[in-house]
From TrEMBL:
Name of this chain's protein: TATA box binding protein associated factor (TAF) histone-like fold domain-containing protein
Residue spans crossing the bilayer: 465-487
Pfam families, A to Z: TAF (PF02969), TAF6_C (PF07571)
GO cellular component, one term: transcription factor TFIID complex
GO BP annotations, alphabetical order: RNA polymerase II preinitiation complex assembly
Domain TATA box binding protein associated factor (TAF) histone-like fold, residue spans: 4-70
Residues in coiled coil: none
Subcellular location: Nucleus
Classification via Gene3D superfamilies: Histone, subunit A, TAF6, C-terminal HEAT repeat domain
GO molecular function: protein heterodimerization activity; RNA polymerase II general transcription initiation factor activity; transcription coactivator activity
UniProt entry keywords in alphabetical sequence: Activator, Membrane, Nucleus, Transcription, Transcription regulation, Transmembrane, Transmembrane helix
Superkingdom, natural source: Eukaryota
PANTHER family per record: TRANSCRIPTION INITIATION FACTOR TFIID SUBUNIT 6 (PTHR10221)
């Protein structure tokens, strides 16, 4: 007697579906109990998967997981609900089996299948990284879902529901909360920038920004403020200068990690260096602002260049493009030259000196009175010429420092004459004065004289005269040093017999 819940007729139907038509009744009776045993195993494994998922309803996905655990290929085409319609079974009464069921498949029109749009291709697998939190504060970036998008309730929690109807409380991300003291500090400093940027209290605020160790929560607010003010107030010279002083104080503070915000600061700083126009009045000394910003760029590269190896190359690429672009204005060229010179003599030798000769040919047209009638343009051209002279002089001075004993006097130099022991004149201070400043002035004064004479002497002649005077001055200093070493002049003492 067959005690299996699986009827032999079901075994026969399954055999016919796979092409076996001559299955004997005895074989069907023998296979039925074994099929029932296998089915019970699969159902038990599926129930375990359901309980591990903390659900009370068995799904097709649980059955597929159980089949995979038994090393059996899962059944395809039977989803677990969702947007799909549930499966509908119908009794196969016409086949002569009262307990035989089949799935009522929907008839599909081939025309609809052909005209249906193609499904979207699957997305390629990729990995991205972003900041979940910086110093305990979650940054507002697209990857971090804002609180409003989570659909929080009035009590600050999001209610979600499982498949079994149990509610789950999902806490929203932590808000960036500033203390009342920090909020007042930020408001006071920003008001000082707009109204009293030259006052003594603003200088104290700058000192506080450069030394206070508890300002790190305010760094993202200050960087956003700097970027916003620079983009909106390029015509306000005093505000731009105050904002750059704020940026320098933040960069000098050793207690805050401002390198995380360099990507927000650098565009504003470079803008104040190579912008076409800074301020809207002729009296605005935008040259000083560009010089200040150039030193600020050098400070950033010196402090953070070792951590970000592409920082200085990117800055150099931006500045050299502005320097070599003939469509840029002369103040923009001046800012780029000052920025490159602030990065050191090696940068000048690499990027400025190879382009100096062709650039001077173009600059000469703007410096001559006969060719440039606009006095402002001539003034800008001579400013650029001075920046180039200083940059080239820095390279020369860097080379001179490699010659030992050239820029410093001997340690002991005594000269005896007429019964007296004399020393070198104290006003000479034994080359303790700035040798380089004297050398540069010797090179620039002839060109300045050309300006005072209404530029009647060509620029090339001015340059040649300048370097000739510098060469003569340099030669005389070498001879003087040699005489001091031969005569053994003293350094800073004067003894009487």
């Amino acid at each position: 007697m067959n005690s299996s819940i699986v009827a032999k007729e079901a075994i026969e139907v399954i055999a016919q579906s796979i092409g076996i038509t001559n299955l004997s009744p005895d074989v069907s009776l023998t296979l039925a109990p074994d099929v029932e045993y296998r089915l019970r195993e699969i159902i038990q494994e599926a129930i375990k998967c359901m309980r591990h998922s903390r659900r009370t309803a068995l799904t097709a996905h649980d059955v597929d997981t159980a089949l995979i655990l038994r090393n059996v290929e899962p059944i395809y085409g039977f989803g677990s609900g969702g947007d799909k319609a549930p499966l509908r079974f119908k009794r196969a009464a016409a086949a002569g089996h009262k307990d035989l069921y089949y799935i009522d498949d929907k008839d599909v029109n081939f025309k609809h299948v052909i005209e249906a749009p193609l499904p979207k291709p699957p997305l390629d697998t990729s990995l991205t990284s972003h900041w979940l939190a910086i110093e305990g504060v979650q940054p507002a970036i697209p990857e971090n879902v804002p609180i409003e998008a989570l659909g929080v309730t009035s009590d600050g929690k999001k209610s979600d529901y499982k498949d079994d109807g149990l509610s789950v409380d999902v806490k929203p991300p932590v808000k960036d909360i500033l203390s009342r003291e920090l909020q007042l500090y930020f408001e006071k400093v920003t008001k000082l920038i707009a109204r009293r940027s030259e006052s003594a209290i603003f200088k104290q605020a700058l000192l506080s920004l450069a030394t206070d160790s508890g300002l790190h929560p305010l760094v993202p607010y200050f960087t956003h403020f700097i970027a916003d003010e620079v983009s909106r107030n390029l015509n306000n010279f005093s505000l731009l200068f105050a904002v750059m002083r704020i940026a320098r104080s933040l960069l000098q503070n050793p207690y805050i990690h401002i390198e995380l915000y360099l990507h927000q600061l650098m565009p504003s700083i470079i803008t104040c260096l190579v912008a076409k126009r800074l301020g809207n009045r002729f009296s605005d000394n935008h040259w000083e602002l560009r010089n200040f910003t150039a030193n600020l760029v050098a400070l950033i590269c010196k402090r953070f260049g070792h951590a970000y190896h592409n920082l200085q190359p990117r800055i150099m690429r931006t500045l050299v493009h502005a320097f070599l672009d003939p469509t840029k204005s002369l103040p923009q060229h001046y800012g780029s030259i000052q920025g490159l010179a602030a990065l050191g003599p090696s940068v000048v030798r690499l990027l400025i000196l190879p382009n100096l000769e062709p650039y001077l040919l173009l600059l000469e047209q703007e410096m001559l009175l006969e060719k440039q009638k606009n006095e402002i343009k001539r003034h800008e051209a001579w400013r650029v010429y001075g920046a180039l002279t200083r940059a080239a002089g820095l390279c020369m001075y860097d080379r001179l420092k490699m010659l030992p004993g050239l820029l410093t006097p001997p340690s002991r130099a005594i000269w005896k004459s007429n019964g007296r022991v004399m020393t070198a004149v104290s006003s000479m201070t034994c080359f303790n004065f700035s040798f380089w400043d004297t050398f540069i002035h010797a090179c620039i004064y002839p060109a300045t004289g050309c300006v005072n004479n209404c530029l009647k002497i060509p620029v090339n002649a001015c340059v040649e005269m300048g370097f000739l005077c510098g060469y003569l001055f340099f030669s005389s200093m070498c001879v003087f040093t040699f005489i001091m070493q031969v005569l053994d002049l003293p350094k800073n003492k004067c003894l009487k017999t």
